[in-house]
């Protein structure tokens, strides 16, 4: 279902204009990785997903989105899994770790919420990549954030940064990697 919906969304988004993608060559051709992208609205999720097709992304999503059975089922079919942001438990690390161990790609929005302002990044993306010993790819999206922006044909742009290779697994290193990710995202 992921590929079908992804290709359908890709066709629909083309009606609103083409996205400009930069540095796609930084994405690994195979193997697991974490992609950490800015999150300014709901459209960035769509553009990130269709840009990586046919590679599926397993998105972390706030648990509130899974309250209705049908929506929870649908989001599950689109590779999203719930995270309790207020009370993060062991599943916040277990689910993405299991996915990465199977060679999947995990998508995380490190600000933890949609925002158009600079915010400090939460350490979840770094912690997950560090524990799984996989690279983290920073990504920055700018463009339409909602349906009105799409209709106005606002230009969309997605820029990928150089992978950050997680080699040190200490807590001190996690802080350094997090600052590195923050700096790379600001630079992009």
Structure commentary:
The chain has one domain: Glycerol-3-phosphate (1)-acyltransferase, CATH 3.40.1130. The chain is built from seven helices and seven strands; from the N terminus they run H-E-E-H-E-H-E-H-E-H-E-H-E-H. The chain has helices at residues 2-14, 43-52, 69-77, 91-101, 124-132, 147-151, 171-187; strands at residues 19-22, 33-37, 57-62, 80-83, 105-108, 136-142, 156-160. Helix 3 (69-77) links the parallel strand 3 and strand 4. Helix 1 crosses helix 2 (43-52), helix 4 (91-101) packs across helix 5 and helix 5 (124-132) crosses helix 7.
Outline the secondary-structure elements.
Blueprint: H1 2-14, E1 19-22, E2 33-37, H2 43-52, E3 57-62, H3 69-77, E4 80-83, H4 91-101, E5 105-108, H5 124-132, E6 136-142, H6 147-151, E7 156-160, H7 171-187
Parallel strand pairs: 1-7, 2-5, 2-6, 3-4, 3-5
Antiparallel strand pairs: 6-7
Helix pairs in contact: 1-2, 4-5, 5-7
């Amino acid at each position: 279902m992921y590929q079908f919906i992804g290709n359908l969304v890709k066709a629909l988004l083309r009606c609103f204009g083409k996205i400009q993608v930069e540095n796609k060559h930084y994405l690994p051709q195979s193997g697991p990785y974490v992609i950490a992208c800015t999150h300014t609205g709901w459209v960035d999720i769509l553009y990130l997903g269709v840009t990586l097709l046919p590679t599926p992304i397993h998105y972390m999503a706030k648990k509130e989105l899974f309250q209705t059975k049908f929506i929870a089922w649908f989001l599950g079919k689109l590779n999203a899994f719930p995270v309790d942001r207020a009370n993060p438990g062991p599943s916040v690390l277990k689910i993405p770790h299991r996915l990465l161990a199977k060679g999947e790609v995990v998508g995380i929005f490190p600000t933890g919420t949609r925002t158009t302002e600079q915010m400090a990044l939460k350490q979840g993306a770094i912690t997950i990549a560090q524990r799984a010993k996989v690279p983290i790819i920073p990504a920055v999206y700018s463009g339409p954030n909602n349906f009105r922006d799409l209709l106005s044909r606002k230009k969309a742009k997605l820029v990928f940064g150089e992978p950050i290779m997680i080699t040190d697994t200490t807590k001190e290193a996690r802080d350094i990697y997090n600052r590195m990710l923050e700096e790379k995202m600001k630079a992009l």
